[in-house]
């Protein structure tokens, strides 16, 4: 009878046989490929022009590699060109060193004829050799000899000055020599066009003739500036029409250095001029530099065009603004430059190329930013200066605004600061108000830019959309790798926010510059806070709560409230008036505003100001800090009542948390006196219990109330120097445990922590604290027995609170009893034994780590299943 295997066994057998067949097939195919390779005749040597596609790929070629002719041997790579260049460079360097040594050391041992013959022969040979080498195709060697020839020409110049014209002025001779060498090297480079070194070297040599000429002639700094500018213009011409990238790059670097030096000379002369006439000549130099930079940017690539526009704009501002600035005092000069910088905005109608015009606008923005940076430190002094009043609260009203700040800034030299802020704020406000007109005027600068077209694979390039109106972005670029540009709405919001912030700062600075009376300053800052609150409420209520203007108004209102609050600390009456007004203003704003986030901020700020008012009340009543602590709890009590009224309103939680911080401040004030601290803790417990009446606050507030009551009891017992706290804690614990038992009967699902936790903690924890300082044995024994019973009851009835509290108290009590014996044994043991035991314990725990981890998880799960 034939045995038929089960289907699963038969399938496994078939799979094994198929795998064996596949392995055997792979071996046979490999052997076949080797035999074909052995029988194939050798391929002919590859000749120039062979066609790789006419040959088959080698049988053992890797997938994905390009096909090569069968038997093709790649040509051995020649020596790296880098090694050849190193050798040639070292050779040319050694020859140059030898020439220098010969000129400086051995020159004096030869006669005039020998000297001339040697220099002429060597220089002529070094100049002719590259031409011969280039015809033979030795370009690298020719380049090295050309470098040697250039060095020799420098030595020839030195030799001519040392022998033929030793009495001539060195600077003048250097100017002439550099000009001659620049011309000769240019001609030599043009004659041997394949050489890359002579023409850039000629550009480098062309940087010095005018500068050394002005230096040799003892020309004033202005003439030196013109020489530097002329050299920079020459470099610009070379960079525009020069031959080869090396020449153009060298010219760009040289032109940048020379142009920057010319600008620095003109700027230094303009800022130090004694009057408008003295600033006119440096201004002409700066204007010429601006014109040269703008001309260079006219047809330059994008990045260079914008850089040229920036340089041109800054130079024009320095030139034009320097003339009136020379006639003004130091505090007002910045205004002249600011007006000129703002005038640059007219470039949008000047017909300049787009990139150059953007560069000029960037220069205008840089000038405005510089003026604001100059003015903002004084504004920071106004906002932060009242901090000094914290050290001497209610010392008396100062005479003026400046004396209240306590700042040492030279306010007479900062008279233009509010004008600068007001001017920029007015322009930004105008742009915000008439934004469609601004977009229409600036439309040429947002013209279409080149965008990548779809590639061969069909991947779309970046697309653009033109601005349909005032609220649309100038252009929005979409697609992979496209840059995101800010939208028109975002730009308009930024303009409005800037106008609001700078206008507020201008008003504050105006009060300091004018040194208004202290009362006027306080009233004015409070009124500004009210105005900012109105703007924030109006902006948030109109559905634009996330825009920049209402957010800026909100931030300004809060920071302004802090500043004026600090400023009011100089006078008792001013402090009450300001913080009372701030409390009302922010509370009213919280009621009127529609958005949730501003409402929460306003409500929290109102609670903070109200808490400060209660602190002022304690100071006015001449109360000590711990005596004033209960007064501070008035505002937290109001926040609890307000939270009960607001219920699940999103503002309720921030308000209650702020009130809790006020309660924490009250606790801090009462720390110095234990009886008052117990009273404050008990009052805080009452407030927490009042919050726990609400179901949504009960999980946190209930435990907090119990903890505060227990803590208040401990503090009171410690303050009364009670040595037997059980007489006071047991009458509290027994009723609390009875209430817990009744609660568990009515609601078996209630947590044991809620039912029994407060009652157990009220007695066990104070007794444990006293037991640790008790030298007698009776209290620790009774406490240990009670903790053991509670622990066993918790384990028997699966009550988590009883098990945890009883176990912790029992462990700590036992540790207290064993501590003297442990210390005695530890003193008797050798010093090496405790570290050894600790190491052994770590090894055991590490070896059984997984088992210990599982035990810990089981213990955690067991505790979690308890109630």
Mind sketching the topology for me?
Elements: H1 7-39, H2 81-106, H3 112-135, H4 139-164, H5 170-191, H6 198-205, H7 209-216, H8 221-241, H9 245-271, H10 276-298, H11 302-325, H12 333-343, H13 354-384, H14 401-405, H15 417-433, H16 435-441, E1 463-465, E2 476-478, H17 488-514, H18 518-541, H19 548-567, H20 572-592, H21 596-620, H22 625-632, H23 634-646, H24 652-670, H25 674-692, H26 698-719, H27 726-746, H28 752-771, H29 778-797, H30 800-828, H31 833-847, H32 849-865
Helix pairs in contact: 2-4, 3-4, 4-5, 5-6, 5-7, 6-9, 7-8, 8-9, 8-10, 9-10, 9-11, 10-11, 11-12, 11-13, 12-13, 13-15, 15-17, 17-19, 18-19, 18-20, 19-20, 20-21, 21-22, 21-23, 21-24, 22-24, 22-25, 23-24, 23-25, 24-25, 25-26, 26-28, 27-28, 28-29, 28-30, 29-30
Give descriptors for this structure.
single chain; 867 residues; mainly alpha; two-stranded antiparallel ribbon; 2 strands
Strand order of the largest sheet: 1-2
How far apart the termini lie comes to 69 Å
Strand-residue fraction? under 5%
* Number of β-strand runs: 2
Portion of residues in helices?
Answer: over 70%
Detail the poorly predicted runs: 44-81, 448-482
Radius of gyration: 45 Å
Structural class: mainly alpha
Characterize the overall form: extended
> Number of helix segments?
32
Q: Mean of residue pLDDT?
A: 79
Q: Tell me the major beta sheet.
A: 2 strands, antiparallel
Question: Would you give an account of this structure?
Answer:
With 867 residues, this protein is mostly helical. It is 73% helix and 1% strand. It contains 32 helices and 2 strands. The chain has a two-stranded antiparallel ribbon with strand order 1-2. Helix 21 runs parallel beside helix 24. The longest helix has 33 residues, at 7-39. The chain starts with 6 loop residues before the first helix and ends with a helix.
């Amino acid at each position: 009878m034939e045995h038929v295997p089960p289907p699963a066994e038969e399938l496994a057998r078939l799979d094994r046989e198929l795998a064996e067949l596949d392995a055997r097939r792979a071996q046979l195919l490999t052997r076949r490929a080797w035999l074909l390779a052995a029988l194939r005749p050798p391929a002919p040597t590859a000749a120039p022009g062979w066609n790789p596609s006419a040959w088959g790929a080698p049988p053992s070629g890797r997938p994905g590699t390009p096909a090569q002719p069968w038997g093709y041997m790649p040509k051995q790579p020649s020596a790296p060109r880098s090694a050849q260049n190193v050798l040639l460079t070292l050779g040319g360097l050694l020859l140059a060193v030898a020439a220098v040594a010969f000129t400086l050391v051995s020159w004096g041992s030869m006669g005039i004829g020998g000297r001339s013959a040697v220099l002429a022969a060597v220089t002529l040979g070094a100049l002719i050799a590259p031409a011969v080498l280039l015809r033979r195709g030795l370009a690298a060697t020719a380049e090295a000899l050309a470098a040697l020839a250039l060095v020799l020409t420098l030595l020839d110049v030195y030799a001519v000055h040392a022998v033929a014209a030793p009495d001539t002025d060195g600077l003048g001779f250097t100017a002439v020599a550099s000009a001659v060498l620049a011309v000769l090297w240019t001609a030599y480079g043009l004659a041997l066009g394949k050489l890359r070194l002579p023409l850039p070297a000629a550009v480098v040599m062309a940087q010095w003739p005018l500068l050394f000429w002005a230096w040799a002639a003892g020309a004033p700094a202005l003439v030196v500036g013109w020489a530097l500018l002329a050299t920079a213009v020459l470099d610009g011409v070379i960079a525009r029409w020069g031959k080869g990238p090396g020449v153009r790059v060298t010219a760009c670097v040289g032109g940048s250095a020379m142009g920057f030096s010319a600008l620095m000379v003109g700027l230094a002369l303009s800022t130090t001029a004694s009057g408008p006439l003295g600033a006119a000549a440096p201004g002409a130099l700066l204007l010429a530099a601006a014109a040269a930079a703008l001309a260079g940017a006219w047809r330059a690539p994008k990045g260079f065009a914008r850089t040229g526009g920036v340089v041109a704009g800054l130079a024009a501002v320095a030139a034009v603004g320097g003339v009136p600035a020379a006639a003004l005092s130091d505090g007002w000069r910045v205004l002249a430059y600011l007006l000129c910088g703002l005038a640059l905005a007219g470039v949008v109608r000047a017909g300049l190329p787009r990139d150059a015009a953007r560069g000029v606008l960037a220069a205008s923005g840089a000038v405005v930013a510089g003026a604001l940076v100059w003015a903002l430190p004084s504004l920071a002094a106004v906002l932060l200066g009242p901090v000094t009043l914290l050290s001497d609260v209610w010392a008396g009203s100062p005479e003026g605004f400046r004396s209240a700040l306590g700042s040492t800034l030279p306010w007479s030299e900062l008279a233009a600061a509010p004008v600068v802020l007001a001017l920029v704020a007015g322009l930004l406000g105008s742009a915000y108000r008439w934004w469609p007109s601004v977009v229409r005027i600036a439309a040429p600068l947002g013209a279409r830019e080149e965008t990548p077209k779809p590639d061969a694979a069909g991947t779309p390039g970046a697309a653009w959309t033109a601005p349909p109106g005032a609220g649309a972005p100038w252009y929005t670029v979409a697609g992979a790798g496209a840059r995101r540009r800010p939208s028109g709405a975002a730009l308009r919001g930024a303009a409005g926010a800037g106008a609001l912030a700078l206008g507020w700062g201008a008003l504050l600075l105006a009060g300091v510059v004018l040194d208004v009376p202290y009362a006027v300053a306080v009233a004015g800052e409070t009124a500004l806070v009210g105005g900012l609150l109105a703007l924030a409420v109006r902006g948030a209520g109109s559905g634009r709560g996330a825009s920049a203007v209402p957010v800026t108004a909100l931030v300004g209102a809060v920071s302004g409230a802090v500043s004026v609050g600090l400023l009011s600390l100089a006078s008792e009456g001013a402090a009450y008036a300001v913080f009372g007004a701030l409390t009302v203003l922010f509370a009213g704003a919280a009621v009127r505003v529609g958005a949730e986030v501003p409402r929460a901020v306003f409500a929290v700020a109102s609670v903070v100001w109200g808490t400060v008012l209660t602190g002022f009340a304690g100071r006015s009543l001449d109360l000590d800090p711990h005596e004033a602590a209960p007064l501070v709890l008035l505002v937290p009590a109001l926040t609890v009542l307000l939270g009960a009224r607001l219920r699940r309103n999103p503002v309720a939680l921030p308000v209650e948390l702020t009130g809790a911080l006020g309660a924490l401040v009250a606790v801090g004030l009462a720390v110095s006196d234990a009886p008052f601290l117990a009273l404050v803790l008990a009052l805080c417990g009452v407030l927490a219990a009042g919050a726990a009446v609400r179901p949504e606050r009960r999980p946190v507030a209930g435990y907090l109330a119990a903890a505060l009551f227990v803590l208040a009891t401990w503090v009171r017992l410690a303050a009364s120097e009670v040595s037997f706290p059980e007489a006071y804690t047991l009458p509290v614990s027994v009723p609390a445990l009875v209430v817990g038992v009744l609660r568990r009967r009515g609601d078996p699902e209630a947590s044991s922590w809620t039912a029994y936790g407060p009652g157990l903690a009220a007695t066990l924890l104070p007794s444990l604290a006293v037991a640790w300082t008790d030298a007698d044995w009776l209290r620790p024994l009774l406490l240990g027995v009670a903790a053991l019973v509670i622990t066993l009851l918790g384990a028997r009835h699966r009550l988590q609170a009883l098990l945890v509290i009883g176990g912790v108290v029992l462990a700590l009590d036992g540790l207290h009893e064993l501590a003297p014996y442990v210390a005695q044994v530890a003193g008797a043991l050798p010093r090496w034994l405790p570290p050894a035991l600790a190491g052994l314990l770590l090894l055991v725990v590490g070896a059984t780590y997984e088992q210990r981890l599982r035990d810990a998880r089981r213990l955690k799960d067991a505790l979690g299943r308890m109630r």
